[in-house]
Amino acid sequence: xxxxxxxxxxxxxxxxxxxxxxxxxxxxxxxxxxxxxxxxxxxxxxxxxxxxxxxxxxxxxxxxxxxxxxxxxxxxxxxxxxxxxxxxxxxxxxxxxxxxxxxxxxxxxxxxxxxxxxxxxxxxxxxxxxxxxxxxxxxxxxxxxxxxxxxxxxxxxxxxxxxxxxxxxxxxxxxxxxxxxxxxxxxxxxxxxxxxxxxxxxxxxxxxxxxxxxxxxxxxxxxxxxxxxxxxxx
Length: 234
Ligand code: OAD
Description:
By secondary structure, the chain is of the alpha/beta class. Helices cover 27% and strands 21% of the residues.
């Protein structure tokens, strides 16, 4: 007896800061290399945390408040809708939780999550913050200072190992709102099968981005993503 096995098409999304721009969260490389008026190396490196932990904690405490006040935009909502018809996995470089709050259920955070804290001596000790701050003197159960659960420059990206096999199985790859300037995240696009349909959504098009065989949608995520989702559902 022959069985016809029908599987849902797999859509893999690689999202970056541009995805959340229309929710009011700033991108990294659109404002003269500054992130919320800070050089990223002054706030997003282990060296910065060792030098001035209070500055770094305060910086991320502010980012957390901003994320809590932000709302998912039309692009986040459209991607959540796609799950009704496709097997969707979102691999995001964003530390906000707007994909989840829009309703997406498979979200992998490559660079950590703003609403989690972790021990500064044991990376396996991770704690939900539920919107509260991390302050000097807040410690893990082993007594070490808590830090944001964020991948800083110069640190390994352990989730990349989980992300690669997901991209390798993509039927469709959508890259949204990322300059693809930061590795290893940027290298993920090279793992997509050659037959996969590939889309790149960014208002600046592919200026300075060195990838091939992508359909470019030179629009903001809030316009380009719902339009592409409509096309895929037709
Ligand atoms: P970037 O700031 O490098 O790139 C943001 C991209 O979003 C740019 O290509 C913009 O053109 C695009 N963009 C701006 N507005 C948009 C909109 N409304 N819709 C769609 N796209 C828009 O941010 P990332 O590529 O995400 O790492 O940066 C990667 C990593 O570098 C971040 O995760 C962060 C950073 O340093 C860490 O913090 C570890």
